[in-house]
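During the no-cost extension, the postdoctoral fellow (Dr. R.K.) reprocessed legacy sequence entries with the updated structure-token encoder. One reprocessed record is reproduced below for audit purposes.
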Amino acid sequence: IRARFPDYVHKISGRGMCWSIYFSSPDTGAPDPALGSRITERAIEKGLMLFLTRRDMVKMAPPLTIPDDALGEGLDILLETVGEAYETNNKENDWISLLTNWIEIDERLK
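Re-encoded structure tokens follow.
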């Protein structure tokens, strides 16, 4: 996940089966609570239980007895939801850029 989305994943920490991913804004490097919240909500909708434990930290703690295929499925869902949040963030940034450009053009025409 960190290799695929290095601008959004600030830090990964954990031990055993309990891991946390810290998400940050690619523009500022500051914690990004909206991103963590979107990822958590979407993952839960898809059947993966995650916990938003701080403003920017998403925690997962599967049971120690989880079968390999279930663990793989959960990690796939996590990767998918981070990808969706990444795409949504880029679309929002594109929209903001378009709006900013439109305002600048409008100001020049006045």
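Helices lie at 33-45, 68-109. Strands lie at 9-15, 18-23, 51-52, 57-60. The remaining legacy entries will be reprocessed before the final report is submitted.
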